[in-house]
């Protein structure tokens, strides 16, 4: 039996929950969980904000742990290896996206916490292809958020072929944004951070931003009209997107990774006349995750985390829900 924590209904507190995972499949890996990040997506699933939750729901998709068992078809990890697991717990491995290496775009990808029991427990199972071996010297206690927040901001840098000479901007310095600033600075870019928080303005500079602008000041935003080759938005609230688009250089790219539920209201002509583009993306493939982890270790990029023990799980979730997280929350089976 696997011992976990589950929400039994929407907006419910997490409660101890046990389930029998059955026999280990030939292509499966069972992970003994050491740490698991608490992501805003976990909160959205607990509260059924996206209308896709089913209960009992065991959240947790930023898993770091040790391989406890492997199926006979798994050969890239061994029992005892330190590994991580992110948003996806499996892929079909036969569609065009999978065969092209874009596993994260697989239409039938299995999510770790949608119709599947996640990492808020002592163990979790997933298809081997989605389990990534951790590089030597990575900090285990802070590695979990890289498997969701980290790859979410890193993947578009790779997919877009972002140049290290690019002038870039990050909207929102939070769980995603503080990682985006670190990755973009290490990539070689000139980084501007948009934030309304005085504390985060100081911290963004410490994390690597070259410039800070107040995201609530239209005049400050207008002062950088036509400057940025790339803008990544990490916020989940509606902003004046047309104003931000005017800060893109010709052929500049605006990229959403924060989940904004309201429809986007966009004027076409600024896009058309400047040949600007807008896109969004979900997490990244196992190969890109591996690249990101190596890059993070090489450049000493770490999520800023607050650690809670698993028996403090509801306290940790409330901490996140009340906007007090700084910047990521991680659960540990042995709080330091």
Automatic annotation (TrEMBL):
The keyword Zinc applies. SUPFAM superfamilies: GroES-like, NAD(P)-binding Rossmann-fold domains. Its cofactor is Zn(2+). Residues 12-331 form the Enoyl reductase (ER) domain. Keywords: Metal-binding, Oxidoreductase, Zinc. Coiled coil: none annotated. Belongs to the zinc-containing alcohol dehydrogenase family. This is NAD(P)-dependent alcohol dehydrogenase. The lineage of its organism: Bacteria, Bacillati, Cyanobacteriota, Cyanophyceae, Synechococcales.
């Amino acid at each position: 039996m696997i011992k976990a924590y589950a929400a039994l209904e929407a907006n419910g507190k997490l409660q101890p929950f046990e389930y029998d995972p059955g026999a280990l499949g030939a292509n499966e890996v069972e992970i003994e969980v050491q740490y698991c990040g608490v992501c805003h997506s976990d909160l959205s699933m607990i509260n059924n904000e996206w209308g896709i939750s089913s209960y009992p729901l065991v959240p947790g998709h930023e898993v770091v742990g040790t391989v406890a068992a492997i199926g006979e078809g798994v050969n890239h990890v061994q029992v005892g290896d330190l590994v991580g697991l992110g948003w996806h717990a499996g892929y079909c491995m036969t569609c065009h996206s999978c065969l092209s290496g874009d596993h994260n775009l697989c239409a039938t990808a299995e999510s770790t916490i949608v119709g599947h029991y996640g990492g808020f427990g002592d163990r979790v199972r997933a298809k081997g292809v989605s389990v990534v071996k951790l590089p030597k010297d990575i900090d285990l206690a802070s590695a979990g958020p890289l498997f969701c927040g980290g790859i979410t901001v890193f993947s578009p840098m790779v997919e877009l072929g972002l140049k290290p000479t690019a002038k870039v901007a990050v909207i929102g310095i939070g769980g995603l944004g503080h990682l985006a600033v670190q990755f973009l600075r290490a990539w070689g870019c000139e980084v501007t951070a948009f934030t309304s928080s005085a504390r985060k303005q100081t911290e963004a500079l410490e994390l690597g931003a070259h410039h800070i602008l107040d995201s609530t000041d239209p005049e400050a935003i207008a002062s950088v009209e036509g400057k940025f080759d790339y803008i990544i938005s990490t916020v989940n609230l509606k902003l004046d997107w047309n104003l931000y688009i005017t800060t893109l250089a010709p052929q500049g790219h605006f990229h959403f990774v924060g989940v904004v539920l309201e429809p986007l209201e966009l004027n076409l002509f600024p896009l058309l006349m400047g040949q600007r583009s807008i896109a969004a993306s979900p997490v990244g493939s196992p190969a890109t995750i591996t690249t990101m982890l190596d890059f993070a270790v090489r450049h000493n990029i770490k999520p800023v985390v607050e650690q809670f023990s698993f028996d403090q799980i509801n306290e940790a979730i409330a901490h996140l829900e009340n906007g007090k997280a700084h910047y990521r929350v991680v659960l540990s089976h042995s709080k330091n």
